[in-house]
Amino acid sequence: MRRPTNNDTWPRLALALVLAGTCFATAAASAVAAGSFDGTYRGTQKTIRTNNSSDCTRIDQDHMSLTVQDNHFIRHWGVVTFDVTIAADGTFTSNEVTGAQRKLRAAQMTGKITGNNLEADIGTDLCAGHLSLKK
To answer: Would you tell me how many other CB atoms lie within 10 Å of the CB of residue 82?
Structure first.
């Protein structure tokens, strides 16, 4: 049996370093997966625009909540579902089109999270609300 030399040690050391780097990268990716804006935000939604139709009733809500997980959330507005991803700077925008009542209508949700505060506008050209929520 041959005795290991320094030439045999280097490939093993290189393999060990690669494995250690892979473990570190995996751990770092897991840490990033939990979003920096994650949590439950609670507060109010108030009317900022209405045409006083039945579609625009019940916009005002004194007790609403929104849960962010992995910098992502889903918010419903009538028949529209917003699938929202929050950017690294806390901003978000989601645009959807609804065909409610046989008319195409654009719906939008835009906002920003700063610290523990989430401020956003949601709605259409007929009716819209402003969310003011705190984590």
So the answer is: 19
pLDDT digits (tens, 9 = 90+) for 35-58: 899 999 999 999 999 999 888 889
DSSP string, 34-99: S-TT-EEEEEEEEEEE---SGGGTT--EEEEEEEEBTTEEEEEETTEEEEEE--TTSEEEEEEEE-
Query: Which of the pair, 92 or 100, is modelled with greater confidence?
Result: 92
- Amino acid 132 reads S
CA distances to 41, 92, 95, 99, 112 from 84, in Å: 15, 7, 9, 20, 12
Tokens standing for residue 70: 């992995």
Fold type of domain 39-134: Lipocalin (2.40.128)
pTM, rounded to two decimals:
0.72
Query: Range(s) for CATH 2.40.128 in the chain?
Result: 39-134
Tell me if 77 sits within 8 A of 66, measured CB to CB: no
